[in-house]
Write a structure and sequence with these properties.
Length: 329
């Protein structure tokens, strides 16, 4: 597989794919930031594997543990000690999941201690507008009304852009929900005459509960324990959550069981899956790719309960070794 194809693998979008072709010579820096805000869930595994791919491609990857950002965003009650504990748990979970040891972890606390960080933030602010900052607020799950009541919320997008520039990032990695911040970074970089970071957008996994009444899509959330599979979950937790997961027959869109297969299992943990079906219902069979699974599921050739059973066994093998270490720390 060529470098560009590896880079693009399992992403939602690369902005831009053409620019990414220039990233494979010399020393290149990649960045991703995580806001410590609770227990890590299985979406972290997507990032662990993508980061490992970037390291193999020659990138020097920095993971920002964004404790100051979490405080601005009122996560864990804004208690910096709880936020730091959460960040340390996240760091351990990524390492236990097999993150390359060459990846560097950085705390936002250490960045903001340098006056140069705030000088850069001021330059960024002078090259943006309030309207443009307002458009970026969804990255933190906040509305304009939230920010109007607490002005620190407006600083958050500026900090995220500053992180990208301060760490000299050639590539910024994040979920599709972070697009506004990184597109803001690209716009401001052009105004300031800086290099524009390539954006690597990663997919989000649907909530185990399915979409809300008014929502087209609802992602796994740390604030709703039954909506997500945590890396601290036990065998019984995994079995219960997958058994109860939203998984309508013949529908793949916003289907969390299908999402986990598509974005996590087939790309990184299994080249094929075995569907253990009773002989009275046709007997067991093997699915060799996600494309095959998607086709069969759309045609209602795979029963949701059979698929859930297959996924459960795989997830137990993936999550429990991590969970056992985290829960024994």
């Amino acid at each position: 597989m060529e470098n560009v194809e590896i880079l693009k693998n399992n992403t939602s979008e690369v902005v831009t794919l053409e620019e990414s072709k220039d990233l494979f010579s010399g020393n290149r820096e990649a960045y991703i930031g995580f806001e410590p805000s609770g227990l890590p869930h299985i979406a972290i595994l997507i990032y662990v594997n993508k980061i490992n791919e970037l390291v193999k491609l020659g990138f020097r990857v920095k993971v920002l543990l964004a404790d100051w950002h979490a405080r601005v965003n009122d996560k864990l009650g804004g208690d910096i000690n709880l936020i730091r504990e959460s960040g340390e748990r996240l760091r351990k979970s990524m390492l236990y999941a097999g993150l390359n040891q060459d990846v560097q972890f950085i705390w936002a606390t250490d960045l903001v201690a340098n006056p140069d960080y705030w000088e850069l933030l001021l330059q960024i602010a002078k090259n943006s507008s309030l309207l443009r900052i307002r458009r970026a607020l969804p990255i933190m799950g906040r509305t304009e009304e939230d920010a109007d009541k607490d002005f620190s919320k407006y600083i958050y997008p500026l900090m995220q852009v500053t992180d990208v520039f301060y760490l000299n990032s050639d590539l910024a990695l994040g979920g599709t929900d972070q697009r506004h911040a990184y597109m803001l970074a690209r716009d401001i970089a052009e105004k300031m005459g800086r290099k524009k970071p390539v954006l690597l957008e990663m997919p989000l996994i649907s909530s185990l509960k399915g979409k809300g009444r008014m929502d087209d899509f609802k992602k796994m959330s740390k604030s709703d324990p039954e909506s997500a599979l945590f890396l601290t979950d036990t065998d019984n937790d995994i079995r219960r959550k997958i058994k109860n997961a939203f998984c309508p027959m013949g529908i793949v869109e916003n289907n969390p069981v299908i999402d986990i297969m598509k974005y996590l299992i087939f790309p990184y943990y299994a080249r094929e899956i075995e569907i253990k079906r009773s002989e009275s219902h046709g007997g067991p069979y093997t699915i060799h790719s996600f494309r095959e699974l998607e086709s069969k599921y759309l045609n209602s050739e795979v029963h949701p309960m059979d698929l859930k059973k297959a996924l459960t066994e795989i997830l137990i093998n993936v999550i429990l070794p991590i969970s056992n270490k985290l829960n024994s720390d």
